[in-house]
Design a protein that fits this description.
The protein is of the alpha+beta class. It is built from 13 helices and six strands. It starts with 9 loop residues before the first helix and ends in a 7-residue tail after the last helix.
């Protein structure tokens, strides 16, 4: 898919791994996402001080560019998709969604404007340091049975996006000497960087997006973030209602534009399930599905707050199995959301914008 996403056929939208154009505004030869990921020096099977040593060949995080920061195509896709929703919803609080700077979006409202940043909602903690997660991921890296099973599942998902593209990308960037865990992460990143894996949040210091990543009670889980947002709508945005209670003025104005949690969830294609694969919230938007649920169908309690996040005894086989449950649930949400966005795009052509 070219950078000219304005005229890109709708069916191509969900297929693109947006990370792959991250080099556009840097050194084209030195910062391509998959090219760097394929470097022999990038040894994510190396564990140092309990953490995966994934940046050992570079001095900065930019060695693996972040699509949310660097991907031109990702923001062009955000603008196109959510403008379709804006025009369908007839939300009078929003006048337009357009580009602001190189990789930012801007919602133009009747009275002012709100700057938005993209953020992945697909955290599986493969290079994070919450609690015991490094030790958990080390155990996962040794779980050959589940790794092989999920690699095949990811291959199937990517093949649905076009066998030829997946084959060419693997031939270009994949090294047969990779350890199994790195192969798993390679396929995971290929699929998780599709449009259904990203959301928009207000971009400013101390934003709700920053807070959800820093909170020990949320740990960047998007299901818990959505439950916080649902409770805020339900209780009128008071302080103290949940772990993200300290909402800034900018965040409050942004969420109030949608009027209700139902409108917010439907706007961002979070509510339709397909073929037994649940999206993030129930179809009527009354509840948020729990990523830690064994069957993927339980919803988060409307009373209290979930106590099980990711801190656990990583030596326990039961707890390692829980991580696989979490992973499969989050991938199910990505499947359903990608399909909902694809359905939205297929019913709206470029000329409709």
């Amino acid at each position: 898919m070219s950078n000219d996403v304005e005229n890109c056929p709708a069916e191509e939208f969900v297929k693109l791994c947006f990370a792959d154009d991250s080099g556009k505004y840097k050194n084209e030869d030195g910062y391509r996402f998959w090219k760097n990921f394929a470097k022999p020096e990038l040894r994510i099977d190396v564990w140092e001080d309990g953490c995966p040593k994934i940046y050992n060949y570079a001095k900065s995080y930019d060695a693996l560019p972040d699509p949310d920061v660097n991907s031109y195509n990702l923001y062009e896709a955000h603008i196109r998709v959510w403008n379709i929703q804006h025009k369908k919803s007839n939300n009078e609080n929003i006048q337009d969604i357009k580009r602001n700077g190189r990789c930012r979006c801007e919602i133009v409202t009747q009275d002012d404007k709100i700057i938005l940043g993209s953020d992945s909602i697909m955290s599986i903690y493969w290079h994070r340091t919450y609690g015991n997660t490094p030790q958990i991921m080390k155990k996962i890296s040794e779980d050959k049975t589940n790794l092989l099973k999920e690699i095949k599942e990811l291959q199937t998902r990517l093949n649905l996006f076009g066998v030829e593209k997946a084959r060419i990308e693997k031939k270009r960037h994949y090294n047969a000497s990779y350890p199994l865990y790195k192969e798993f992460i390679w396929y995971y990143l290929q699929y998780s960087n599709t449009i259904g894996g990203f959301m928009l949040f207000p971009r400013h210091d101390c934003s709700i997006n920053q807070a959800r990543g820093m909170s020990d009670r949320i740990q960047d889980r998007f299901d818990l973030t959505l439950e916080c947002i649902r409770r805020m709508y339900e209780s009128g945005f008071p302080t103290g209602s949940n772990p993200l209670f300290d909402m800034s003025k900018e965040d409050k104005e942004y969420f109030e534009m949608f009027g209700s949690f139902e409108n917010y969830a439907k706007f961002f294609c979070l509510n339709k399930s397909y073929d037994g694969k649940h999206n993030w919230v129930t179809e009527d938007c009354s509840a948020v599905y729990d990523l830690m649920s064994e069957n993927g169908e339980d919803t988060l309690s409307k009373e209290g707050w979930p106590t099980e996040i990711l801190h656990c005894d990583y030596k326990s086989e039961e707890k390692i199995a829980k991580w696989w449950t979490f992973y499969r649930n989050i991938m199910s949400r990505l499947d359903a959301r990608n399909q909902q966005i694809a359905e939205l795009l297929s019913n709206n052509s470029v000329k409709d914008l």
